[in-house]
Every structure is written in C-alpha cells, then in structure tokens.
Please model this.
Amino acid sequence: MSSTFDSEDLNELLVLGPDDVDTEDFVFSLTFECLSDTPRRMKNALYSTKIKKYTDLQQLASDIELMFPSDLGDKLKSGTAPTIEWFKSLPSFYCPGFIVYVLVLTKRGCRPKIYIGSGTDEKYGGKHRLESYDKLTALPSLVKQALAEGYAIVHKGLLAWTTTLPRAGLVPMTRLLFMALEGTFSFNFWAMRAYKRDYGMGHMCLWPRSDLEYDGLCSHCCLYEGVRRNFDLSDEQLEEIAILVGRNHREKAAILTHNWNVAFKQRDPDGYRAWTAANGAKYHHKQMETNHDGYLARKLNERTVRYAAHPEKLVEETKAWARRKTEMYAENRANKNFFCTDCNLACRDADHYSNHLNTPTHKKTVNADRTSPLWCGFCFMLCASENVLKYSHLVSDLHRNNVIKFEAQQAAEAYDALELEAYELAEAEFDGNLEADDMDVMEFELYLD
Model:
C-alpha cells in the first residue's frame, strides 16, 4: 500500500534517503513524470483522462495488493547503472496476478539484451504470457529475432506484481496502471531498441545510456498501445458482465467437454474407461491429501442425498460392487497378483496379502525345515509328529485337494508342452514341404531353359 507521501517532484525524491521514501512512492513519481512527459502522439489518450494527478496512482494502488522487489527502490535511486546480474537476481516465481516482467537474454561473446513487458489477463494474470516464452509462441518481434540469432532467455524476473487477480470492477484501471509501469520501467532501464535516438524520453533513463552493459529489445513505447476493457462502464456493470461471461463460459465449456467425452467413449471405450478411472483416482488422492475432512464429508452427503431420492440405487450399487469385488478377487488369485511363495498361497488383494504376512501360520512356514520328513510339499506344511502326518494330515480334505490341484497343474503343463511340440513339428513339416516345392519349381525352370 502507498504511504502518505504526496509529491510529484522527482528531484525532491532523488535527494531524499532510501529510508525516507518507500519504493512505491518513488516508482509512482517516476511513472507520473513519464506519463506527463510522453508526447501525446506516443501514448493512449486514456492516460491523460484517467491519471490526471499523482494521487490517482496512489488511489489505484490502495485498491490492490501491489508488490515490488525488495531492492528495486535502492537500485532506482542508485547512481550506478544496473548490471545484467542484478536483472538475473530479480524474483522469478509463479504469480497469479498481473505482472511487469523483464527477460534477460544472453549469447556467448555478445552483449546481453533485456525486454520489459507486462501480463494482465483478467483470468490468468501473467501466467500465460510467461509460458509463451517457454512455448515460443506470440513472441515480441525483436525477442523472436534475438532467439533466431542464437540468444537464449536465461531469466524471467518480476519488476512489479499483484498477489491476486483484481476483481472485475478494477480490471480496466489496474491494467492501465500496469501498462504505465511497463512503459516507465522500459524508459528507466532503457529497454528500448534505439540507442542513439531517445524518442524525446532519454531523460527518463536514470543513468547515462553509455554506462549500460546491455541492449534493449522493446521496439516501441507500450504507452501507445490500446488498453483492453470498457472504461465507460461502472464497477457494478463490470462485475455483472464478469458474472455473465463466467456463466456463459462454464456452460460452453460443459457442452464442449460433454461432446468430447461422448466422441472419445464411442471411439475407444476401453481407453475412455481407463482415462476416467485415472482422472478419478488422481482427483481422489489430491482431495484426500489437501482437503481430507471436507472431501469425505461432501462425498458422504452426496451419497446420502442420492440414496434418499433413489433407494433402489443403494441396492443396485451394493450388488454391483459385490460382483466387482468377486471378479477382482478371482482375477487376482488366477494371475497370482498377490502371491506368497513361501506358503504357496494366492491372496485376493493387497490387504489380504499384508495380513497374511503377519499371521503365525506364515511365520511358522517361513521358519520351517523343509527337508524334514514331516514336511508336506503339497500343502507347504510341517506336521508336529509322524502320527499327525500319517493319520491326520495325509487323509484330510486339505491334502487331497492340494494333491488334485498339483496333478491337474502338472497335467496342464504337460499338455501345453505336447501342444507346443506338436505345433513345432507341424511348422517344421510345413517349412520342409515349402522347400521341396521350391526345389520342384527350380527344376522345372531349368528344364524349360
């Protein structure tokens, strides 16, 4: 927030110590001087009608959370021109609000270059603007040219930002403020392309331009550009429009999403089920981590309301879930997804497997002497005595069933082996016949010759 300092005299601010004037006041004085000195042909008329006094800037700042780098004020008041390392030290982080940023471009053996711009999208702030430099889309002309010449963007720093997006009623004036800051910083740090000419604004550069160790990539003064949004509407009208636009956007997005889902489901049913399951699991895990209690309470309330309105759904979903569990358990056992090799046991799921590992039976089996004559290899079981083995275990249904399973498995493996052998023999015979046919063809061709 701005202090109570109320002066438009930049010279007065320059002689004051850094502790006497905060960064925001100093920046606003530079901004107001820039707007006042910029020729009319080089700036949008909105600046003259909407920012008539220095206090207009302070009023704008009082409605938003405007932030600057901690050392920006000291650097602007310093008699030493900023180095490229100072620009590379500017904060670089994801900011949800509006931003004024600086790009640092370097190339071995060449002078560094900087570009100053702003990101004021009312929905995404500066996020998409900064991402465009990673995607190499919608690049400023001179930045694009520098990249083509071999320069690389090594840093994207922030010169000013808001901590949140401004509400709809403040978007036009906040956007105007940030474009004014962009133009001011472009002249203060001289990020302009022209080095010999100064557009009549050379005095706004805070240091001799010959002291700067970098070149600028701004092709023109941004104050001349149009400013999106209708400045003739009241705050209430802008808020109402934002609500309507948001509602229409959500409705259109819902229709597009529905149509896309229907097309995807028809084109690839299995892929669609896998995709929806993965998204549902991802959302569930995220909610359990970040909103555990609220998420569970909401899910419980949704089920309660749904079952109260349609009691038959509870019965149907319960039966369906029971069928799915039975099928899943059977599949896990058949594929041995959770198999204990020590006990020769296929568990139904991960919980069953985990519980089994902690049972006395498993621990006893792991520690058993499998070379003992009392060990039953069919049942993976060590009997207590010879009498128990002969007269109890070997005549039990458990043992008989395990023997039957083992013999059936052996028979199946033998059958598979015979089938494979028969297939290989048939394939070899077919290849032999094919070679014989080839020989006959060759002999017939020789006979013709």
About this structure: The chain has four domains: 10-224, 235-310, 311-353, 385-449. The longest helix spans residues 397-448.
